[in-house]
Every structure is written in structure tokens, then in C-alpha cells.
Amino acid sequence: MTTLTPTPGAAEPGLTGTPPRTAGRRPRPRPRKQGGTILAVPALVWYLVFMVGPMVAIFVIAALRWPGMLQPVSFAGLGNLRAVLDDPVFWAAVRNTAVQLAVALPIMIVCAYMVGYYVAQRPPGHRVIRYLLFVPGLISTPAKAMVFYAALSPDGLLNGALESAGLSSLTDAWLASPSTALACLIALDVWAGIGFTAVLFAARLGSVPDELGEAAQLDGAGHWRTMWRVHFPVIRDYVGVVTMLQFLWTLFGSAQHVLLLTQGGPGSSSTTLSFLVYQKAFIAADLGYSQTVGVLLFLAGLAGLLTIRRLFRQTY
């Protein structure tokens, strides 16, 4: 009887579970998924029409001499830019905007992060605290302006409290004084933004593993060091995103607070760049000047975003 000995290294049929390959048979290609681009078309059209379109229009109008919506239009070239750069009101607005960002943004982000860290530790009543932090975001801008006007007017709550405390010498017309008008607007920006930002930080800190904080505290770190040395590096990129959002809101959204409270005055002591765009377009009817400031404001916003992203990017 002849015994067949299998060749070393050859797989016996039926043991590997792999069917024998048939010569000339090619694997069938997987069908490619279609329709993703088609679903994105409405969003792309919306973005092009309502985002890219107005952005291009800003640059076009900045090169025109346009004294009002129904007035004849002529080409101005760089004339609007020269007029803007020679205007002392523009440089006052640049200074006020820089002060506003340099003061409001660090205070808002640091305080909001600390409040968000406290809420993320789930103290007693933390759910109620989350809702209370949302209150400034639920109040309309005119209502918030009325609250601050009632507090800071000459016969308002702040002066009344100072007089009751025997500090009548410190009372002032806060919104009508060149030395305090911008500070009042900054206080409104911080009050309006700190609560919502704290809720965002609390939500992100809630996803950080509890083991990190517990390990740090076992090593002897207190809450302060745990907050800044352990949790902050973990959500550093998220802090950068929130900072960019608040930067854009403060840079472009301050016009409504200025309009409702100070009208840019006294003089130009509280005029910001975003309010100057509104003032020149809708009050002075100088659309070319207005959109030239808008172009400079856009470039400043872009430079600020790139700077913030570089400062808060992860280093690992």
C-alpha cells in the first residue's frame, strides 16, 4: 500500500477554512458610496451666497465712493483707505478696541474656566448653578443694556449705594464720563459672556477622566494646582476654541452695546471699530469709509484668530 506524505508547509484541504482559489477569478470590487457630495450642495450654496458673497462685497464697496444707498457710485481706489488712516476717530476706535480685548478677554476666559472647573466638580446644587450661569445668555441685548443703564445712570443703583455708604465723592455719571464709559462697556461684555463660557468649560471638563484629578490629589496637589497643572493642559485646545469665539464676539459684537448705552461718546471715548462701521454706514451715510473699516476689522479678526490658535495649540 502506498502512503501519501503531505509536503511540509502545504496546508491540508479543509483544515484552514480557506476555499481553494480558482484560477482566473478576481475579487469583486466594493461598490463606492454615492450621494455625499449631493447632500452637501445646499449647505455649500448657502455658504457661498450668504458668507462668501458679503465678504467679497465688503472688499468691493471699500474701493468705491458711495455717499448713501440711493446716491451715485464712483470709483475711489485707495482714497477711502487714506481717509480712514488720516481720521483721528479711527485711531481712537483702534485704541478702544485694543483696550476692550486686552481687558475683557483674559478676565472672561480665566474667570469662566475657574467657575467651570468648580461646576465640573459637581458641588451641591451644581445643576441649579448651570442654569443660573445661562441667565445672561437668555436676556436680550436691549434688556441687558437697560439693566446696566439702571445701575450706572447718575441716579442709578451704583451711585445710590455709594451715597448710602457715605462715599458720595466717588459717585459719577459713569456712562457719560470719558474716563469710565469704556470701562462700563467692558464690564457688560464680561458679565454677558462669563456665564455661558463657564458652562462650556464645565461640559468639557466633565469629560476629563476623574482618575487624573484623583491621582494628582493623592500626590499632594490641591485644587488650584490640579485645575491649572492637570486639567488645563488636557483641554488646552478647547480653551483656544472658546477664546477664539469670545474674541470674535467681542470684536464684532460690541457695536450693539455701544449703540444702546453710549453712542460712542462722550466724544469718541467709547467708539469701537465695529460701532464705527455702523456709524459711518447708517448715520454718516459713507459706505465706502464704513466698509474700508470693515476690511481692516476683518484682517484684524483673522490675525487674532491665528495668534490665539498658535498660543493654545497642543505642544505634545
UniProtKB/TrEMBL annotation:
Pfam families: BPD_transp_1. This is Sugar ABC transporter permease. Residues 13-22 have a biased composition (Low complexity). Belongs to the binding-protein-dependent transport system permease family. Residues 94-308 form the ABC transmembrane type-1 domain. It comes from Streptomyces diacarni. Residues 1-34 are annotated as: Disordered. Keywords: Cell membrane, Membrane, Transmembrane, Transmembrane helix, Transport.
